[in-house]
Amino acid sequence: MALAPAPARVEAHVPSPPAERAPWLLAIALCTLGVLALVGALSGVIGAATTRAPAASPPPAPLAATLTAPGALAPATGQRAHGLGVIVGRPSAAQQSADARRFGASSQAQIATRWIEGFYPIYGVAQETFTVNWLLLASIHLQESAFSTAPGIYKGLNFAHCCGGPMQFNVTNGPPSTWRLVSDSYLYGRRPAAYDHMTATHPSIYDDFDSIMAGAHLLSADGAAYALDGSAWAAAYDYYGHDAGGVSYADEVLARAIGWSQHGFCINCGVEAAMVAAVHAAYGAPVLAALVPPAPAPAHKTGKAGGRAGNGQRRAPSRR
Questions:
Q1: How far, in Å, CA of 162 to CA of 228, rounded?
Q2: Per the CB 3.0–4.6 Å rule, which of 57, 200, 215, 229 could disulfide with 167?
Q3: What is the 3-state secondary structure (H, E, C) of 270-289?
Q4: How many C-beta atoms lie closer than 10 Å to residue 123's C-beta?
Q5: Do 235 and 257 contact (CB within 8 A), yes or no?
Q6: Are the beta carbons of 251 and 279 closer than 8 angstroms?
Q7: What is the pLDDT of residue 216?
Q8: Which domains does the chain have, with CATH numbers?
Q9: Cβ atoms within 10 A of the Cβ of 267, count?
């Protein structure tokens, strides 16, 4: 008797293995997107909204600094570069007192290298445009706002309600104000493609490029050039004001710039006391001496006939 063939086995509850085509397509698509993202990041397409542009190294310092003989500083007078006369800051006594504390805090601030790199292109354009040593400009930038890191730099005015922005320009003196005189300085140079605090409208006292270019223009107008010498000192003195506070300001600003020119740009290095003393002896001391009138000589009592007179000479005998 022949056996009937067994019925075909039906796997009704076992799922069929999935097709492999879809996962392969997905993997290829993800790999393609990854490659495109990498290419975009390397080419700068992706991340273009980030304003900070990296710079490998600071601009070159144009000249080495040397100190001239003490007392060799000529007074800052007359018409200067770019058609501007001498522009002198005139801080009040209250502002000078507060500035002394502020400048001390600025010199002690710890600045990230990545942060300062964003200013290198601006310093370079300012140096090339106005033929001012960028180390002097950077030293004032540090003195005024700790490289734009001090509180309140990008809004409002300072405690004296007169000055604002990275370079602390006065917007209330005049008219015209100091800022108004140099606010169009950004037009002379090519604006970097990207940097922090780029404002929507120009000129702006809060825009890093606008403000730093104006600072370079002002230093140039007051006689600064590539050399870190007496002219640079006088320009820094004009930048702050013709008073004892301005002498200390210019001494420290120039000493820091000279130190950078000799030892390399150092963001968080302090100013050498010996260099400040040398700058003061060469440039600051003669100006400070002219600011402070000499004390009157003590009156000498004159003796009787035959005694010594006030000038140290023996008095002639009286003929009466």
A1: 29
A2: 215
A3: CCCHHHHHHHHHHHHHHHHH
A4: 23
A5: no
A6: yes
A7: 97
A8: 89-291 (1.10.530)
A9: 17
Q: Is 163 helix (H, G, I), strand (E, B) or coil?
A: strand
Give the type of residue at 81. A
Please answer whether residues 141 and 204 qualify as being in contact, where contact means their C-beta atoms are separated by less than 8 angstroms: no
53 Cβ contact partners less than 8 Å away, ≥ 6 residues apart: 118, 121, 192, 193, 194, 195
Region for 302 from its dihedrals, namely left if φ exceeds 0, alpha if ψ lies in -120 to 50, beta otherwise = beta
Close Cβ partners of 232 (under 8 Å, ≥ 6 residues apart): 133, 136, 219, 224, 225, 254, 257
Token pair for 105: 């805090």
Ordered alpha helix ranges (H), 1-78 = 21-43
Q: What percent of the chain has pLDDT over 90?
A: 44
Instruction: Give CA–CA dist 300/103, Å, rounded.
Output: 45
Which token pair is 24? 């392969």
> How far apart (Å, rounded) are the C-alpha atoms in residues 246 and 72?
18
Structure tokens at 181: 């005189």
Query: What is the token pair recorded at 5?
Result: 């063939």
| Both structure tokens of 314 | 């023996």
Here the tokens at position 12 are 């009704």
**Which uninterrupted H or E stretch holds 144?**
helix 134-145
Q: How far apart are the first and last CA of the chain?
A: 181
CA distance 27 to 91: 67
User: Given a cut of 60, is residue 62 above it in pLDDT?
Assistant: yes
In this predicted structure, the answer to whether residue 122 has a pLDDT above a threshold of 60 is yes
Rounded to an integer, the average pLDDT of 157-183 is 89
| Residue found by looking up tokens 């140099």 in the block | 182
Q: How many C-beta neighbours within 10 Å does residue 51 have?
A: 14
The predicted-structure confidence for 211-266, as pLDDT tens digits, reads as follows: 999 999 999 999 999 999 999 999 999 999 888 889 999 999 999 999 999 999 99
Residues in the chain: 320
